[in-house]
Design brief:
447 residues, 5-stranded mixed beta sheet, 16 helices, 49% helix, 7% strand
């Protein structure tokens, strides 16, 4: 019976995640960062190449002048290559959204089978998973089921299975090596050889990727996330960081704190809170998704130690109800979510003018809809020399201020012809051949 219930919860989650993600994409709410970038990565794999992205050149290091940025020099995520054959069969960027929904739903099945259907439903509705599904696509989607399987094996006393499920996390993202190492330490209390081997693999893997593999693939020979251009210190933002911790505790009503498994959350929280980038501090975006399997597996183990578990389960269910009513997926209950907003219709009309195979620069929310059939860059002034088409949408939140600047640059250059303007979307066609090189340099004073 538990297996059937777990399958039902997992299937329901997959349906909800998929429908929401695809509908959000159809409304032009996905973006170049990150669905567009990963769309280009998976397309590269499907074509038998290492992953590169023309979009990522918009934020490449100073001095980079290539046509596409090597993504394995940005983050170490070779496991994303598993989607290459799928994309080769169905060359649509929506494949990534469906795959992400499926990966998360697998973790829902695992957690439900381990923790019961109430905790399973609460996990499916947790803020970390909802935010991941509502944030385009990200490589941590692969970490979610792997973490769930490793934690489930740990709670069931299958020490070697836990190590085998955890080891592939080293191929998901470079920061997960520390998590693998901590799980190895926990395992060493029960199976010394297996635990110490996993701990060593986590440490060596983390150092190898950050110090050797990523710099070797990066154009400037450096791992770019060590020194980020943000003026914040460790002491800043603790009001936001406290909210993140509070939500992680509240989502399981504190049950996770009753299990040593909760220590697996420490490495991720540590690099996020020590970073000078404030985008990492809060509970939103995709950064908390990888913590959800950890805290719910810890909660399941903690629940077994409770004298009166029924009361705890009721509180967790209440927290889940709040998440369902306030999380991103709650938009699915609104009739407006199922209607095409006028800006989406205008964007769809404009994109029809861009021919297949073209080189095009486009605004942030338009890029994912061009990834499958064009070579697409983010619409910035320095991308203009490489493209023959430009599609600019007013009001895109990022990159801030670029829409007007790019439009003025195109109209002032003399060789761009406006071919369409409606609903806040403007399309330009270039007369003559692109120059083929982006002038990457910092403007001097007065320019």
């Amino acid at each position: 019976m538990r297996h059937e219930r777990s399958l039902a919860v997992g299937a329901l989650s997959f349906l909800a995640y998929t429908v929401y993600a695809l509908r959000r994409h159809a409304r032009f709410e996905t973006t170049a960062y990150d669905l567009g970038i990963f769309g280009q990565a998976v397309r590269s794999y499907a074509e038998g190449r290492l992953p590169v992205s023309e979009i990522r050149t918009a934020t490449a290091p100073e001095g980079f002048a290539g046509a596409a940025y090597p993504l394995l020099g940005d983050h170490f995520h070779p496991l994303v290559g598993l989607l290459g054959p799928v994309y080769a069969l169905v060359p649509r960027v929506e494949v990534l959204l469906v795959a992400q929904a499926g990966l998360v739903a697998v973790s829902v099945y695992v957690v439900t089978r381990t923790a019961g259907w109430v905790l399973g439903l609460s996990y499916a509705a947790s803020f970390g998973l909802q935010d991941l599904v509502a944030f385009d696509f990200h490589e941590v989607a692969f970490a979610v089921p792997l973490s769930a399987l490793a934690c489930a094996a740990y709670t069931e006393g299958r020490w070697r299975a836990a190590a085998w499920w955890a080891a592939p996390l080293l191929l998901v993202k470079e920061d997960l090596g520390a998590t693998v190492a901590v799980l190895g330490l926990l395992l060493s209390r029960h199976d010394r050889r297996t635990g110490l081997a996993l701990c060593a693999a986590g440490c060596v893997g983390a150092v190898l990727t950050v110090a050797v593999l990523l710099p070797a693939a990066a154009p400037d020979g450096r791992y770019g996330y060590v020194h980020q251009p943000h003026g914040y210190g460790v002491g800043d933002g603790w009001d936001t960081k406290a909210v993140t911790v509070a939500l992680l505790v509240a989502v399981t009503a504190g049950l996770a704190l009753r299990s040593p498994l909760v220590l697996l959350a420490v490495p991720t929280l540590a690099w996020r809170f020590l970073s000078p980038n404030p985008a990492y501090w809060g509970p939103g975006l995709h950064y908390s998704a990888v913590l959800m399997p950890v805290v719910f597996a810890a909660a399941a183990e903690g629940l077994r130690r409770c004298a009166r578990p029924g009361r705890w389960v009721s509180v967790v269910a209440l927290a889940a109800a709040v998440s369902v009513g306030t999380g991103p997926l709650s938009a699915s209950w609104s009739p407006d979510f199922w209607r095409d907003p006028p800006p989406a219709a205008a964007a769809r009309e404009a994109l029809r003018l861009v021919p297949d195979g073209a080189a095009v620069a486009a605004s942030n929310s338009l890029v994912p809809h061009l990834v499958d059939r064009t070579t697409v860059y983010l619409a910035t002034e320095r991308a203009l020399p490489r493209v023959r088409w430009l599609v600019v949408r007013d009001g895109d939140p990022w990159p801030a201020g670029q829409a007007g600047a790019v439009r003025r640059a195109a109209e002032g250059a003399g060789h761009w012809r406006r071919v369409h303007a409606a609903g806040g979307v403007t399309v330009y066609a270039r007369e003559g051949r692109p120059e083929g090189r982006i002038p990457w340099r910092t403007p001097t004073a007065g320019e």
